[in-house]
């Protein structure tokens, strides 16, 4: 178990734009250093936002249509020539696989996390 990080304020948390998104497209990403997909997510913005995500333990067809939790305002990051615009949240299971976080029930696309 990793130690807790230093305490943050509520204002730190409130600055993050964390939303429910729906995966609409998954593409291979062979140029990534670590096995990854290019994942298009509808987060209720004016357009689909893209993420480089190390979630290749999932089949692309199983991801499309799924609801995920995303941080939308961390700023774009260039990963092997691809612009990753958001972070899909996940956790590592006991076998080292990344498990994507999502709501337990249907939630509207773009719904903010609080």
UniProtKB/TrEMBL annotation:
<dbReference type="InterPro" id="IPR012340">
    <property type="entry name" value="NA-bd_OB-fold"/>
</dbReference>
<protein>
    <submittedName>
        <fullName>tRNA-binding protein</fullName>
    </submittedName>
</protein>
<dbReference type="InterPro" id="IPR051270">
    <property type="entry name" value="Tyrosine-tRNA_ligase_regulator"/>
</dbReference>
<feature type="domain" description="TRNA-binding">
    <location>
        <begin position="12"/>
        <end position="114"/>
    </location>
</feature>
<keyword id="KW-0694">RNA-binding</keyword>
<keyword id="KW-0820">tRNA-binding</keyword>
<dbReference type="Pfam" id="PF01588">
    <property type="entry name" value="tRNA_bind"/>
</dbReference>
<dbReference type="GO" id="GO:0000049">
    <property type="term" value="F:tRNA binding"/>
</dbReference>
<dbReference type="InterPro" id="IPR002547">
    <property type="entry name" value="tRNA-bd_dom"/>
</dbReference>
């Amino acid at each position: 178990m990793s130690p807790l990080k230093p305490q943050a304020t509520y204002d730190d948390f409130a600055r993050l734009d964390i939303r429910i998104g729906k995966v609409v497209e998954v593409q291979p990403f062979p140029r990534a250093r670590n096995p990854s997909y290019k994942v298009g997510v509808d987060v209720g913005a004016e357009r689909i936002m893209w993420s480089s995500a190390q979630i290749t333990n999932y089949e692309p067809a199983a991801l499309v249509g799924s609801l995920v939790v995303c941080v939308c305002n961390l700023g774009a990051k260039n990963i092997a020539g691809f612009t990753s615009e958001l972070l899909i949240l996940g956790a590592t299971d006991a076998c080292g696989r990344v498990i994507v976080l999502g709501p337990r029930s249907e939630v509207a696309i773009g719904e903010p996390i609080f």
